[in-house]
Protein: GDP-mannose 6-dehydrogenase
Organism: Streptomyces musisoli
Amino acid sequence: MRVSVFGLGYVGCVSAACLASMGHEVIGVDVNQVKVDLVNDGKAPVVEERIGELIAEVVRTGALRATGDVREAVMGSEVSLVCVGTPSEPNGSLCTTYLERVTEQIGAALAEGAEQGGRHTVVFRSTMLPGTCLNLLVPILEKYVGGTAGVDVGVAVNPEFLREGTSVRDFFDPPKTVIGELDPASGDTVTALYDGLPGEVFRVPVPTAEAIKYADNAFHGLKIGFANELGAVCQALGVDSHQVMDVFLADRKLNISPAYLRPGFAFGGSCLPKDLRSLVHAARRADVSVPILSHVLPSNSDHLQRAVELVERTGKRRAGLFGLSFKPGTDDLRESPLVELAERLFGKGYDLKIYDANVSLSRLLGANREYIETRLPHLAQLLADSVDEVLEHAEVCLVGTRDPAVLSALPHGDGPVIVDLIRLPDAEARRAEPGYVGLAW
């Protein structure tokens, strides 16, 4: 394919050189003439493993050249890959100035009929927040092109997952390829661009592709911060943190796995809250600052509060809650977030009914009974004997369980407002219904 790559920084330079080495005909574009001249001389404008020899080779064969002329680049390509920077503004917001400018330039070139034969596809590879492409860049492109994105001009978002220092290796052996497609034809074009590379390809809506990059980077930062904080606590307590992490990382079932990484309701139970508190307390006693660890429980509490606010926004006063124990299949109520939710709703004066097939006040014993009598002493009058009893009572139902008897009885359309705390199996279909609100979206 004939590809123009806008921006010859790390991402653009590596993308241009690697695509050229795959057999594509690539034109690099940059406002910095020094970068343009370096590429045309077969030299890399960035310092990066393998990039120098790769650029020298693809320039020598004629597969890559560079220019400062946008019209020339668009005229000579079928696909424009936008790799310009999106730095932070002083207040932390995303700077989209360069993205907007390049989009205007590409749109103006297309409006002049610069690209000959076939539909041009604009692929945004720059990191940008969800909504940037559809709400900001697409209108700019349509204004200058004088047509409709997805019809007259292709549009896609294709985030990169290149690490500085190993970016050439990462390009040829990507962890995944993500294509946010405005329309299937745009997605097909980007898919063809990377034909032959290993790794799974995900074709998703445009905002999803934008968000995936942020999910990755936020998690990478979180992992590093977590490891460093834990290391500091271990050091203060006289423990070898690398031994701890070696064992931690060996657990591929719960630790390094998809476990617990699905948006849903707050966590609770007899272990997680207690152990987080004691670890943070031990860190404070040792004068070790652990801002990540110390904010996990407040974050969890804030998420629970979001569920309360969803109920408040319905304006309904008769509420039903399905689920009470902290984990399905148990009657353990200790530090259950659903108990906390029930307590907050009851305290706000909601007329509440609760159903949990595993919870019977007469069977609660020991610490479990003591806990519920302290936190929710009115539980006996709140518990319902059946799903139907809750549904007949409630104007708004909060679903915190996957009990088949509950799921099969939940009405569609007319009936109580459904507040989904767990992402119901039919959540996609229910999302279009006026009486459905989800916490796990």
Q: What stands out?
A: The chain has a mean pLDDT of 92. DSSP finds 19 helices and 13 strands in the chain. The longest strand covers residues 2-6.
